[in-house]
Amino acid sequence: MADVKKVVLAYSGGLDTSVIIPWLKENYNGCEVIAVCADIGQGDELDVVHDKALASGASKVFIADLTKPFLEEYVWPTLKAGAVYEGKYLLGTSFARPIIAKALVEIAKQEGADAIAHGATGKGNDQVRFELTVKALAPNIRIIAPWREWEIRSREDALEYAAKHKIPVATSNKTYSMDRNIWHLSHEGSDLEDPWNAPKNDMLLISKAPEDAPDRAEYVMVDFEKGIPVAVNGNKMGAVELLTKLNDIGAANGIGITDIVENRLVGMKSRGVYENPGGAILYYAHRELEYLCLDRQTLHYKEGIAIRYGELVYDGMWFSQLREALAAFVDSTQESVTGTVQLKLYKGNIMSAGAKSPYSLYSKEFVTFERDEVYNQADATGFINLFGLPLKVRALMKEEAGLKNE
Question: Fewer beta carbons within 10 Å, N or C terminal of the chain?
Fold first, then answer.
């Protein structure tokens, strides 16, 4: 341990990371600890976090403003891919970890640190996401994960350690374990650990419960350019302003509340409830536009890509070669995904209310039930004969062999 002189710590201001600062100094020969707090729109009072880190023993504190690049470089590519983990989870924590870990690496190199530390537990996915990013960007730097080393096993242990070392911490115990950024808010633990327990409405901190949403539907329009959202209700906006606006609209209508028992990467199932109002609107709107703008083969193939892309993001493989290659494929599909989608929001539900695009592949002339001059229905005879030929040949074979056609 003597070779560790300077450690960069992913710092949130919570109990665990506050305790980690003196623990590192105590167990790694008085090493210098530099705290890095990533601002990805979680709404914390960052001045308080800065001062708290210094009071806990950090030599320096960096507040990294990452909200805009978080959306543009991590969220938007995942949105374009249509990537959702296990059909429900919009990956709010998953793609936040790589950008935080990248900032840790950059500051570690800048400050000449020997190691990077994080407060993720040995049971969860975040330890993997942090450490795979560090391995991808700084393969020779040491990684310290106190939860896999120390004797602290509970909140009570951590509070006792903090009191012993005179570390300022909040003593109130939150009901749920939460993670928040501009994209989502997650809730885990407490009564949610029993999947039979329905989520309580008073748990929600962003969204209204659907039954408390207005009795009148609200309509919202979202404009996309090459798969990227650029405007809401006709008003051009930057990424942060746009998502903030959609979060407000979605939350007021009870949109984006998701309850899922998911398969963690480390092998166990966990139950979480996510508030994702703006994200739910964007995923729905983007999909509606793809229905107009992508041909059948591309759309169907991309559906398979989306599942794999989501798994890679969930597993912390953001900087993997496969994720980057899939992103290149996705980008090529999005060249024509430009247009406007209108949605109807009502008490937790999202409904389609119109879509248009200059690159729409929909042609009323071809699909109309009225008389048309562009499609010869007799052409379908030859198509069906050829398309069904393998079925016919197999049926003939079974007849000749004395087998039943069932």
Answer: C
**Cβ atoms within 10 Å of 70's Cβ, excluding its own:** 25
Using DSSP, state whether 141 is helix, strand or coil.
coil
Are 373 and 305 a contacting pair, CB within 8 Å? no
* Cβ atoms < 10 Å from Cβ of 19: 25
Tell me the pLDDT tens digit for each residue of 158-200.
Answer: 889 988 988 887 766 678 989 999 999 999 999 999 999 999 9
Residue 398 has φ and ψ, to the nearest 5°, of: -65, -35
Q: Which of 128, 111, 103, 91 is closest to 310 using CA atoms?
A: 91
Which residue carries 């793609």 as its tokens?
95
Q: Answer whether residue 53 shows pLDDT above 70.
A: yes
Q: Could you list the active site residues? A: 16, 97, 126, 177
What is the DSSP annotation of 281-297? HHHHHHHHHHHHHS-HH
Tens-digit pLDDT profile for residues 394-405:
999 999 999 988
